[in-house]
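We modelled each protein-ligand pair independently. The example shown here corresponds to the zinc ion entry; the chain sequence is given first, followed by the ligand as SMILES.
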Amino acid sequence: MHEMALSRELAALIEAEAAKHRAARVTRVVLEIGVLSHVDGGAMAFCFDACTRDTVAEGAALTIEQPPGQAWCLDCGDTVAIGKRGDSCPCCHGHRLMVTGGEDLRLKEMELV
Ligand SMILES: [Zn+2]
């Protein structure tokens, strides 16, 4: 389960940010998990709770946003939306697609007090 490793990294990043801003606590964290990333939101939430225990982010409200998948279709010459990796282009049904968005895991926002 690589969500545990990712959560550990995330918890370390949050602690570093909080320390930089001399924050006593982190009350809210917004994570972006693209639908094309290989990260499971539910598992991530579970691991996040475990990894932030006894840290400044303990009990922080976690919001997970899931930006849709995006790809560049070489045949249409346009950006199209895809639901998962390996999908064909919704316009021309071609397969010459390059994924351009929705595959990242990103710390989008955090609220410090
Ligand atoms: Zn196309």
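Helices lie at 2-20, 41-52.
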